[in-house]
Design a protein that fits this description.
The complex is a heterodimer. Chain A is built from no helices and eleven strands. By secondary structure, chain A is mainly beta.
């Protein structure tokens, strides 16, 4: 079993829909990252959080440390949001990131 | 720009060739990480440097993989006698923080990656 699990693996949506991507992890962590990867490989860090909730534009990330679960929400989705979204956790006492396999999102106009 | 850069962006190698992949981290960033991302998978940790010291190389898949960061800035990942299973995107990331520090300094900034194809 992977230490970081994401669901769904693939997601399609119509423009304007509300999107939720889930991440569960099984290790003790000091932080959780949500990353966005566009075709061609470039990775952009969206959020780094260790508790609660963060919001940036149309993106919202939440984490529940007790339940070892995080969600990434996209409000009013747009075709330019189409990308792979990756959850990664940083385990205690190390900066090493453990990655989920990603969720491929396609938003159609 | 002042981001992490990697070169080459694409590399095709014949099986058995040696390759060298370069990472230029953000200036002043203490920590540097190498990750391997196979097609359709999430990245996997290879190795970690704090300045010039390689503190963790537990993710290197075999002794054909070697990484260095001799002056604490630019890093090179070398793969000797490449095999087809080495085909992947190799990602480099850097962060401002030293190991164990908490806070926004731990955020890792990723380079665009080097796509290695071994024929």
């Amino acid at each position: 079993k992977n230490e970081v699990e994401q669901s769904p693996q693939n997601l399609t949506a119509q423009e304007g829909e509300f999107i939720t991507i889930n991440c569960s992890y099984s290790v003790g962590i000091s932080a959780l990252h949500w990353l966005q990867q566009h075709p061609g490989g470039g990775i952009v860090s969206l959020f780094m959080l260790s508790s609660g909730k963060k919001k940036h534009g149309r993106l919202i990330a939440t984490i529940n440390i007790q339940e070892k679960h995080s969600s990434l929400h996209i409000t009013a989705s747009h075709p330019r949001d189409s990308a792979v979204y990756i959850c990664a956790v940083r385990s205690y006492n190390t900066d090493k990131l453990i990655f989920g396999t990603g969720t491929r999102l396609q938003v159609f106009p | 720009g002042a981001g992490v850069s990697q070169s080459p962006r694409y590399k095709v190698a014949k099986r058995g060739q040696d390759v060298a992949l370069r990472c230029d981290p953000i200036s002043g960033h203490v920590s540097l990480f190498w990750y391997q991302q196979a097609l359709g998978q999430g990245p996997e940790f290879l190795t970690y440097f704090q300045n010039e010291a390689q503190l963790d190389k537990s993710g290197l898949p075999s002794d054909r993989f070697f990484a260095e960061r001799p002056e604490g800035s630019v890093s090179t990942l070398k793969i000797q006698r490449t095999q087809q299973e080495d085909s992947a995107v190799y990602l480099c990331a850097s962060s401002l923080a030293q190991l164990g520090l908490e806070g926004p300094y731990n955020e890792q900034f990723f380079g665009p990656g080097t796509r290695l194809t071994v024929l």
